[in-house]
Amino acid sequence: MPITIDTTVALLTEAEALEIIGEDADISLVRAMLNAISIHFASITGRNLLLATYTNEYYDGSGTRNLVLRETPVKQVDALYVGINETVALVQGIDKDFMLDKAAGIITLMAGVFPGLPYSVKVTYQAGLETVPHDLKFAAKKAIAFLYSERTRIGISAISTPDQVTTYIEQSYPKQVIEIVQRYRRLLVA
Length: 190
Known about the structure:
With 190 residues, the chain is an alpha+beta fold. It has helices at residues 14-21, 27-45, 134-150, 175-182, and strands at residues 52-59, 66-68, 74-82, 88-89, 98-101, 106-109, 121-127, 158-160, 165-167. It has 2 domains: 1-50 and 130-153 and 171-190, no CATH class; 52-127, no CATH class.
C-alpha cells in the first residue's frame, strides 16, 4: 500500500519537499518523512499546528468568567454550551454572551461565570494556523533536507577507513530548526 501525505498535519507539500531534495528522491520515503516531521513539530510545540475543527470538546467550568481553550490561535467558536445538561447556548460578540481572545484562545463571559463543575462546558471551535508561516515552512524544509541526507547513516555513529575516521553527531534536526519550531510552543495560561 503506497504511503500518502497526511494533509491534516503536513507543513509542506510533496512538490515543496522534492524541490529541496531533488525530483529523483524515493517518493515513499519523502512522504513518510513529511508526515513524521509534521507530527514531530506538533509534539515539540504541544499543539496541532494547522487549522482544524474541534467538535464537542468538554471542559471543567472554572468558576470564573474565563475559559481557556486547548488549541490556539482560534479562528472562531461555532458553538458554546454551558450547564450540566448543556442547556444554555451562548452567542459570541459585543452585546452578546461572550467575547473571544483569538490569539490566546480565551473565552470571556460578558455576564456570570462558567460553573465550577466538571464537564459543564461544551465547545465546538476552529483553531490552528490557516497558512504555514514562512519561518515554519523554512524549518520543515531544513528538516526534510537534513533527514533525507542522513538516511544512509541511520544507526551509524562513525565510519573508519585506512586514511581517516569520520564521527557523526547524532541529532534529530539542526539547532536552527528546533529554535524556529519552539517559537510556536503552546503557552499554558495559569
